[in-house]
Amino acid sequence: VQLVESGGGLVQPGGSLRLFCVASGFTFSLSTMSWYRQAPGKVHEFLASITGAGGRRNYADSVKGRFTISRDNAKNTVYLQMNSLKPEDTAVYYCNNQARNLWGQGTQVTVSS
Predict the structure, then answer these.
(1) Over the range 61-99, which residues count as b (16 or more CB within 10 Å of their CB) and which as e?
(2) Is 65 helix (H, G, I), strand (E, B) or coil?
(3) What's the N-to-C CA distance of the chain in angstroms?
(4) Sign of torsion over alpha carbons 33, 28, 65, 82
(5) Which letter does DSSP use for residue 73 in this model?
(6) Contact status, residue 44 vs residue 36, Cβ threshold 8 Å
(7) What are the backbone angles phi and psi of residue 78, rounded to the nearest 5°?
(8) Are 98 and 46 spatial neighbours (Cβ–Cβ below 8 Å)?
(9) Tens-digit pLDDT profile for the chain (113 aa)?
(10) In which region does residue 28 sit, left (phi positive, over 0), alpha (psi from -120 to 50) or beta (all else)?
(11) Residue 42 per-residue DSSP state
(12) Which of 40, 69, 70, 105 is the least buried, fewest Cβ under 10 Å from its Cβ?
């Protein structure tokens, strides 16, 4: 049972990145999935969640209108499309399945010129 994130990197302010999280070991299509981030010296911050069938999505105010969560149940993958990135978006980004208290290893996103 695991989550594996990828897609992070260095991007300039105003740029975009797409994060990926591949799940294994549980019934992904029935599971609500979330993205969080943690910046240096700060607590985990909720960003977005999506229900198993993708019918309901929730976003934190800090990313609403800039980030989009989606999923492909055939690929056991949840995505986070991040647009109009700002330096304050710099953090380690984590995929989460709350029902199992399951976290990935994280992927670093750095927004800097």
Answers:
(1) eebeeebbbebebeebbbbbebeebeeebbbbbbbbbee
(2) coil
(3) 38
(4) positive
(5) G
(6) yes
(7) -115, 145
(8) no
(9) 999 999 999 999 999 999 999 999 999 999 999 999 999 999 999 999 999 987 899 999 999 999 999 999 999 999 999 999 999 999 999 999 989 999 999 999 999 99
(10) alpha
(11) S
(12) 40
Length of the chain counted residue by residue? 113
Structure tokens at 32: 């609500």
CA distance 11 to 17: 8
CA–CA separation, 79 and 63 (whole Å): 14
Taking the C-alpha atoms of residue 4 and residue 20, their distance in angstroms, rounded to an integer, is 8
Q: Report, in this order, helix, strand and coil percent for the chain, each rounded to 5.
A: 10, 50, 40
